[in-house]
Amino acid sequence: MSDPKHPKAGDRTMDLSDIPLVDITPDHVAHLSKLREGHAGAIAAVLTAAAAARQRAGLSEVEVAELNANWAAYEQIEEVLPAVEKLLELLHETRLVRGHEIAYRLGEMAHQVRRRADRSANGAEVAGPFEALLDYHFATGQKSAAAREKNKKEAEAPV
User: Fold this and answer.
1) pLDDT single digits (tens) 32-84
2) Domains in the chain, number
3) CA 53 to CA 73: how far, in whole Å?
4) Residue 34, exposed/middle/buried by CB under 10 A (0-12, 13-18, 19+)?
5) In sequence order, what E strands does the chain have?
6) Residue 12 within any structural domain of the chain
7) Which of 75, 77, 85, 76 lies closest to 39, judged by CA?
């Protein structure tokens, strides 16, 4: 496990509190300038140039300092991004597996309730509290059966 301030892919503990985050709209994203290949060299040229050379070129030291701060934040984001992406992948896959496990359990339970209700003299009392469960689980089967019935009737109807 690496330092939470410098996580590696697979780490589950990250401290990104020192990275100032920005939330923008998708429309705003389309209007942003994109960094192209070679940007690191261009940034290095500005940051490593002597102050006198920057002054002769008319570059503001305030803007150079802002560039330096933005570049440091960008590099920090680049460093942690693989770990964040891997954690997001793990969360997504874990959610899928948990959803599968939940759906499987709900299916087993729905079948159990239906079996008990079918075999019981007071089946409505057995199934009643679980109506939402039964509706949820058997809805897709009922929709499929209704669609098959509709298609069968349409096929048999005279043209």
Assistant:
1) 999 999 999 999 999 999 999 999 999 999 999 999 999 999 999 999 999 99
2) 1
3) 25
4) exposed
5) none
6) no
7) 75
At which residue do the structure tokens 């997001």 appear? 88
CA distances to 93, 108, 112, 133, 148 from 141, in Å: 27, 15, 17, 14, 10
Tokens 């693989």 sit on residue: 82
Report the distance separating Cα 139 and Cα 131, nearest Å: 11
Cα–Cα separations (whole angstroms), residue 114 to 27, 117, 142, 146, 147: 50, 5, 15, 20, 23
The answer to whether position 115 is within a domain reads yes
Residue 139 located in a structural domain: yes
**Integer Cα distance of 21 and 23 in angstroms:** 7
Q: Which residues contact 71 (CB under 8 A, 6 or more apart)?
A: 43, 47
Domain that holds residue 124: 26-156
Report the Cα–Cα distance between both ends of the chain, in Å, rounded.
71
In terms of pTM, does the model score above 0.85? Answer: no
Question: Does residue 47 contact residue 69 with C-beta atoms inside 8 Å?
Answer: no
Please check whether residue 86 lies inside any domain of the structure.
yes
